[in-house]
Amino acid sequence: MNRTPAHPALQGGIIAAGEGNRLRADGFRVSKPMVQVGGRPLIDHAIDRFRSVGIRRLTVAINEASDDCRQWLKGHAGDFDLDMIVRSTPSSYATFRLVADKLVDAPAVITTVDTIMPVAQFETFVASASRFPDDAVVLGVTGHVDDENPLWVTLDTSNGRIRHIGGSNGSHVTAGLYWLPAKRPVNPAKDFARLRDYLGSLVAGEQPVYGVVLPCVFDIDRARDVAAAEGAVSGLQREKSEP
After folding, report:
1. pLDDT value of residue 1
2. Half-sphere exposure of 238 (CA within 13 A, CB side)
């Protein structure tokens, strides 16, 4: 992979603490981050995206049952300044907060481990998000809906601002990518049961939240999602072997 690091000052985070119950029900016996797509674990795809944009400070949250992922990271993430959090959390919001609170004093890009997309789309997201106002939270969004329980957003295409989040319809769905500004939104006085509830509260409040549209994103929750991603996203195997 012969790319020039474009954003070396940014920090990165990976949310990989989910239990992967639906994948387990479909016959997978590894932890969710170690489920293979194109012959490579999901966690490998995730950290490779950060390599592509020159991000080397990386916080990864995995659950206490993901010893296979913990061992894999020890052997494959030596080129990162890696902060690994091993903790089983009660909610997606709690995991997000754990990761976000580690990434301070600079903009940060956080991704869920079960997101598969072409590396070029990740690069587009980072470049586009960096051009929004300094106080903006930016979400990756897509018109490709393959999630069983998508989080809908309504995007103002004139300026990229997200006007509404949640409900049963909208213009796009979220894609598991989040840009946080160096000056973070004030931590809420209450906890949220789900990350989507927190994001909805940002949009409903005074926080400017924008969206970057990505055309081809897969959320890996079922065996059929693995097959769909492998059929639609080119380069899933090739990128690993490139220098």
Report:
1. 41
2. 7
